[in-house]
Specification:
Elements lengths: L2 H31 L5 H14 L3 H8 L4 H9 L8 H14 L6 H19 L2 H4 L1 H22 L4 H29 L12 H14 L3 H8 L5 H9 L8 H15 L5 H15 L3 H7 L1 H24 L5
Helix pairs in contact: 1-2, 1-4, 1-5, 1-8, 1-9, 1-10, 2-9, 5-6, 6-8, 9-12, 9-13, 9-16, 13-14, 14-16
Amino acid sequence: MLSRTADHLFWMSRYTERAENTARMLNVVHETALLPQSAERAQEGWLGMLSISELIPAYTARHGTVTRDGVLHFMVRDGSNPSSILSCLRAARENARAVRGTLTSEVWETQNQTWLEVNRMLAEGAFERDPGQFFEWVKYRSHLSRGVTLGTMLQDEAFHFLRLGTFLERADNTARLLDVKFHAVESEFHGLAPAREHEADFYHWSAVLRSVSAFEVYRKVYRDAISPDRVAELLILRRDMPRSLHASLREVVDNLAQVSNDHSAETQRRAGRLLADLQYGRIDEILATGLHAFLTQFLDRVNDLGAGVSRDFLVPVWS
């Protein structure tokens, strides 16, 4: 496959996944902000949203003080912010347009309709009227894109580059979410909170689980009160949790194997080693050495994998 085509497919799926993850996190922060709490605690949630995407400097340069309306505008409809939902859906559509001949008509029409519809909704004020419904719509369109891809695309190299982009992006976003949300409680120790904090603790961890559609999954797996160490275990080490780091890296390794070439052995080795750390890791060992340090290292290794994929498959080599 031409490296340019692979590049467009890879980034089309990454931007679609990024838009969904941004919608998930914004929805949780928006709903959590409606709970009884101090103004300082509510602002911490919006600040955390920017921190997840490493956008605090970019936001403050444009808007100054962190506010609910400012963050929502910046992360949803600000075209100058490359990580906003609008920018991500535009980039996904442009990448899809560049490789229309490689996609099935259903995949292209899904991407194109999403772009046309999001512009109509924002122009008509649908987001301001009901942010929660808008975020659900973004998630639905991402689900639809993945489903149509899985149901109509030939499972050749094009398909595997689409999947590779999706799960690299998902691993990155899940790790960022965990790092920021755990850091908001305590930086290294994650044991039981004092009794007076139990109620706030429950809402905090429920919000984290709901942001990755894991609340019902948690109840099914653990059948117990929500505790930080089990939230971390579910979202890091459980292979059967679809948005966990383990499940995402499993997909990355499998799809890398399907598109491997003469230059990709080192990238595959690094992906396999990272998967092995998750496959054989234990949550008590991770928490004992510090979750923040573990997730920071994980993000560095995922970014290294992304650079390896670009080097091995996506960047033309001129001789």
